[in-house]
Write a structure and sequence with these properties.
Elements: E1 2-3, E2 6-7, H1 15-28, E3 35-39, H2 43-56, E4 60-64, H3 67-77, E5 81-86, H4 91-102, E6 111-115, H5 120-128, E7 133-136, H6 144-152
Parallel strand pairs: 3-4, 3-5, 5-6, 6-7
Antiparallel strand pairs: 1-2
Helix pairs in contact: 1-2, 3-4
């Protein structure tokens, strides 16, 4: 699937398959009670990411279409984690990490970045900005929740509906 200039990978499981399995995940998921704030200025990618996370987790997904709105929501809602999409060449993208890391309400909330370019040096730069980990684009929407749960050590055992 192509969203803007990015290609999203859907391996083995499609969003339609996940929609049919949603009831199963709701019954057995270990993620109940978590809130994730998704900050993403790209409308299409934000919608696909939100849908994928909602279909594969029991997390409450808050979304913000801009970094300014994301900061406001993070302060008001105090999510358990924040997922931020963007590019390091965007000055607002770098600034949001500093703002989240320096605000007393959000300074201890784990941040995961989604970036179109992730090299070893980029991971160091992200870490200096207070980012816990980085997910490279394109990413697999069907497994994004698992990947985030692993980063955050949120009891990341996904049961298989086929067992």
């Amino acid at each position: 699937m192509t969203v803007g200039p990015f290609s999203l990978s859907f391996t083995a499981v499609t969003l339609v398959d996940l929609l049919h399995e949603k009831r199963f995940f709701q019954k057995v998921s270990h993620f109940t009670g978590k809130t994730l704030l998704l900050i993403d200025p790209e409308d299409d990618l934000r919608e696909v990411t939100q849908t994928g996370l909602e279909l594969t987790t029991n997390w409450k997904i808050l979304t913000a279409p801009s970094y300014t709105e994301g900061l406001r929501l993070a302060i008001a809602q105090k999510p358990d984690a924040i997922l931020v999409n963007g590019s390091m060449i965007d000055l607002e993208y770098s600034a949001i990490f500093n703002q989240l890391d320096s605000h007393p309400v959000t300074e201890n909330i784990p941040i995961i970045a989604i970036s179109d370019r992730v090299r070893l040096g980029d991971k160091v730069q992200f870490a200096q900005l207070g980012v816990m980990d980085v997910i490279a684009k394109p990413f697999d929407s069907a497994n994004l929740g698992q990947q985030i749960a692993t980063f955050l050590q949120w009891n990341a055992s996904y049961p298989s509906p086929y067992d």
